[in-house]
Write a structure and sequence with these properties.
The chain is built from eleven helices and eleven strands. It has 339 residues and is an alpha/beta fold. Strands 1, 2, 6, 7, 8, 9, 10 and 11 form an eight-stranded mixed β-sheet that branches. A three-stranded antiparallel β-sheet has the order 3-5-4.
């Protein structure tokens, strides 16, 4: 840069500073500053400016939560159906049973967040793929999807799971106990059923307690008696397939279970739905836990079989309840006749 150009820039800068320092300039700058502050305040105004909360005592909040929770425990100490596992199959079973308001249901989930692996598609991808004709329940729930011919794609798996979960939670006949683990089964003798034993409920504990038995002294569990259990605890894992594992240890389904087979989408989903069953009196198996018992293939990132298996499991539970009610009525009639 030439010395002349440099001198010109310095002169211009000096003149600007002098002008900005004049009394008139300072007044104009002050007015501009005030105008800008008023504009900023108006721009940031919201419908919640001045919002205040009602006064509260901390003990009121504590009582509101604990009284309701323990009332729920009391109401569900015995229940018609207990569903163990609130993944895709368990939520589907609960949703189907929500259509029968006279059936009392306790839904138990070891995690804080229900839904299992159905918040995402395969490999942490967003979309959920559902093979036809399982997609029909999406229409029932008004969930949009893209049609790919033999299957449909929902833009985000969380849309399906959150919609299904909202329906379940709103149902008056269903109570979700999340952050709760099932540590064992209640099994009682019953001479009227094959094998002479019936699953009669769940042995429960808070999940954090279940995970820390080895670090603390004995922490005994709680129980929920049920007429029917739907076990939908998924494939093998730290707490997965817990229902069939316990049945195997008790010798009620043989001494060992084969575990799920390798992936084959075409055969896996049909096998899951076909294998949904009352595996022992009082206990219905659905979802991936079916594959653990049967050794059938896993299906990977398609979800139709999970939902259809859950729906089927719900109807098997309804059939079992009806059968028990009919048997109880016949027993009462015999007792009256013999009296």
């Amino acid at each position: 840069m030439s010395s002349l150009a440099s001198a010109t820039r310095v002169a211009n800068a000096t003149a600007f500073v002098k002008k900005a320092s004049s009394p008139g300039s300072r007044a104009r700058a002050s007015r501009v500053s005030i105008s800008r502050r008023v504009t900023a305040q108006a721009f940031h105004a919201t419908p919640y400016d001045g919002f205040t909360f009602e006064p509260i005592r901390e003990s009121q909040i504590s009582r509101a939560m604990t009284s309701r929770y323990f009332k729920d425990l009391d109401n569900h100490a015995d229940t018609d159906v207990v569903i163990v596992g609130a993944g895709s199959a368990g939520l589907a079973a609960a949703y189907e049973l929500s259509k029968y308001p006279d059936v009392k249901v306790a839904l138990i989930e070891q995690n804080v967040a229900p839904g299992g692996g159905s918040w995402l598609g395969g490999q942490l991808f967003s979309s959920m793929c559902i093979r036809k004709p399982a997609h029909q329940f999406l229409d029932e729930l008004s969930i949009p999807y893209e049609d790919e011919g033999s299957f449909v794609v929902v833009k985000h798996a969380a849309l399906v799971t959150s919609t299904l979960l909202s329906k379940v939670l709103a149902a008056p006949n269903i109570k979700l106990f999340n952050a709760t683990a099932v540590e064992d089964l209640i099994v009682k003798p019953d001479e009227t059923v094959p094998g002479g034993k019936r699953v009669a409920g769940a042995v429960t504990n808070w999940t954090l307690v279940s995970l820390n038995h080895s670090t603390q002294s004995c922490m005994d569990p709680n129980v929920i008696e049920s007429k029917v259990m739907i076990s939908s605890t998924g494939h093998d894992g730290p707490m997965g397939a817990s229902g069939v594992k316990r049945l195997a240890r008790l010798g009620m389904v043989g001494e060992s279970i084969p575990g799920m087979g390798a992936l084959d989408m075409n055969s896996a989903e049909d096998a899951i739905v076909r294998g949904t069953q009352e595996v022992v009196p009082g206990m219905i198996l659905c979802g991936m836990e079916v594959a653990e018992l049967a050794g059938s293939p896993r299906m990977g990132p398609t979800f139709g079989a999970m939902y259809i298996s859950g729906f089927a499991g719900a109807h098997l539970a309804l059939n079992a309840l009806q059968k028990q009610s009919s048997s109880s009525s016949k027993t009462e009639e015999r007792d009256v006749a013999h009296a």
